[in-house]
Amino acid sequence: RKVADGLISGARAALESAGAGHDLVEVPGALEIPVAIRMAGEAGNWEGFVALGCVIRGETTHYETVCNDSSRGLMLLGVERGLSIGNGILTCENMAQAEARADPLAMDKGGGAAAAALHLIALSRRFRGIPSRGGAVPDDTDILVAAGASQPRTA
Fold this sequence. Notes:
The chain is mainly α. It contains 5 helices and 2 strands; from the N terminus they run ααβαβαα. The protein has a two-stranded parallel ribbon with strand order 1-2. Helix 1 packs parallel to helix 5. The longest helix is centred in the middle third of the chain and has 20 residues, at about 60-80. Residues about 145-155 have low confidence and may be disordered.
């Protein structure tokens, strides 16, 4: 849980510093992340998504399947459906690598994934003709990213 908490903390910090609201949705594993994002994308309530998770190599080839298929699923959602997704699913050889990459005070891959999602949201707005006053995220319209029910969904 330490890795997941680090990824979430980094992503939240990046989203909140940009003024973006967020919802946290948990799924059983990395393979379920693209499915959940597709369902949320079809609902149409969010402008972007931050996919967070961690796959650590084990003794079987299941690692390659999970890594490749979760990444491919996210890429297809972005390319074919135009969803703005920051991919923060870590693929690591061991727990030490995962902890370093998830730590918001170290490599901060959760924050990086959130920043990528925000950048794609800004590009999507630009291409749709929604005006921006500058910065990675336009500040003149609300941003919806996939937060608990008690948190605002817009910035």
